[in-house]
Amino acid sequence: MHISGPTACRRVCAAVTAALVIYSTVLTGQNLAAAGGIPTASVPAPKLDWRPCVQGSPFDCATAKVPLDYDNPGRRTIELAVVKRKATDPGRRIGTLLFNPGGPGGPGTVQMPQNYESFPREVRERFDIVSWDPRGIGSSTAVNCFATTGEAAAWEAGKPAGVPVGAQQRAAVIAAYQDLSRRCQRRDPELLRHVSTADTARDLEGLRQAVGDAQLTYLGISYGTILGATYANMFPDRVRAMVLDSNIDPQAWTNHASDADPRLTTFLRMGLDRAAAAVLDRFLTLCGSTDTAGCAFSAGGPEATRDRFHQLMRRLRAQPVGEWTYGRTIADVVSSLYILHPGWTELAGRLRDLWQGRVPKPATLPPAPPVPHPNPYLGDEQASAVVCGDSPNPRDPAVYPAMEEAAARRGGDAGRYWTWATVPCISWPAVAADRYRGPWNRPTAHPILVVGTRYDPATPYADAQAMAGELADARLLTHEGYGHTALINPSSCVKSYEARYLVDGTLPPEGTTCRQDKPPFPARKPVGGIATGGGWTAVTVH
């Protein structure tokens, strides 16, 4: 789920929140599949005037000017904020790796610098790494439906946080997003129709040309995978190497390219209710399998820890702890499952505090990256503009309560969260003028590497399998681990395969599986036993 506001960006951007976000509409726009998918107008590559982002920064910044509407490139132009870190071994430089951090709504000018050390060492040595704030987002020409930051903050504070509980809160949330839609329609209706994934794929092609590479080398995570798949099918002959990490099923995203009223939201079509529930269950099981020194919320055993969690949720429904309502807590739980370290440990600490009736301490924010705008405005309307224009979602608010209950039967509290994550699309006022909805199997110049994490709360492993099956030539690399994206929840094994593929095109053997470097929680410490010199039989401390 997208988190708005400057402090949220500092917390989430550092770990990539991918937090996917909000979708759809049954209005119809041009279908690029029918139109052939490739822009017909000739558009020159944007010029990038690189200079240090700020004094002393190792990152360079530039601004790219691109057409708002690629079908009418002579009309309005918009700006893209772009960032680069040069290859650290310039004598062996291969080219440029273009990176999209997901979202939609992830500002690449913040997230790439914050996560730069997470890229494989050989990739940092041999590629310039370039990212950008996609159109409509952050420091690029952005969707911003408020006159001031104070006005935006007042709107945010006026609606229930997280999952709405009961008819009154549901009505308040729907009304808040209806108000947001009206504001957005008044501010810049033309921009709302031109921030689609297909539009951004064309921007990506322009950036490829601007950096001077004959073909694209790309890494996309989360929403960046559907962007990558869109590019690969719009420009299949221009793919040099492409890593898609934590994937969205293209058929779920497009509702099978159908204009019929969707029965489920995008996230429920993707299976996020079941996926997030499975990760939450593993969190509670592993937490309960260690002691409170290893996981602060442990109740001494997996079943007891699960029972404690469900008791806490029931208690919060009846009586919040300060501003920590049930709805806010569930939103925090699901988003905190994205990042294994330190996210799971910090989540356990907040749940312990709530269990003990204390308001949790605010999360520690990471340092701001050395860029001109480290905390850009990232309001809900930015992600909504992308998702609601691209991916169909039900627009009748009356169907959401029944959808929520069905999702809760499949995925418990996480199912409720993912049902309401697309609520802005109920009333969103625009649909993308250009949407790419397939085909997804156009033969590419080179094969694509798809990475899927087994326990991912935001992009299920099944979606990685689906992506690998949809693409014409793809290899699936399985990451046996937890969290959202292998980039931020690292496996040295995954990084090694990614680096080799990006450098020389070598794919991992079919069926390759990699394990995560570090488990979520430490095991219980044995007391006694041969290893500690205390006798024959070891016991564990509870």
Write structural notes for this entry.
There is one protein chain. α9 (223-234) links the parallel β7 and β8 (239-245). Residues 1-37 and 528-542 have low confidence and may be disordered. The two termini are 36 Å apart. The protein has helices spanning 6-15, 32-35, 108-114, 121-126, 149-157, 166-187, 189-192, 197-211, 223-234, 250-254, 266-270, 272-288, 302-318, 326-336, 340-355, 380-390, 400-420, 461-470, 492-504, and strands spanning 30-31, 51-52, 60-67, 77-85, 95-100, 127-132, 216-221, 239-245, 434-435, 448-455, 474-482, 513-515, 526-528, 538-540. The protein is α/β, with parallel strands linked by helices and 542 residues long. The strands form 3 sheets. Strands 2-3-4-6-5-7-8-10-11-12 form a 10-stranded mixed β-sheet, sandwiched between helices. The protein has 19 helices and 14 strands.
Write the layout of secondary structure elements.
Blueprint (H helix, E strand, L loop, with lengths): L5 H10 L14 E2 H4 L15 E2 L7 E8 L9 E9 L9 E6 L7 H7 L6 H6 E6 L16 H9 L8 H22 L1 H4 L4 H15 L4 E6 L1 H12 L4 E7 L4 H5 L11 H5 L1 H17 L13 H17 L7 H11 L3 H16 L24 H11 L9 H21 L13 E2 L12 E8 L5 H10 L3 E9 L9 H13 L8 E3 L10 E3 L9 E3 L2
Parallel strand pairs: 1-9, 5-6, 5-7, 7-8, 8-10, 10-11, 11-12
Antiparallel strand pairs: 2-3, 3-4, 4-6, 13-14
Share of residues in helices: 25-40%
Q: DSSP helix count?
A: 19
**Over all CA atoms, what is the radius of gyration?**
23 Å
**How much strand?**
5-15%
What class, by secondary structure content?
Answer: alpha/beta
Strands of the widest sheet, in order across it, are 2-3-4-6-5-7-8-10-11-12
Question: Would you identify the regions where 5 or more consecutive residues have pLDDT less than 50?
Answer: 1-37, 528-542
Strands, total number: 14
> Termini, distance in Å?
36 Å
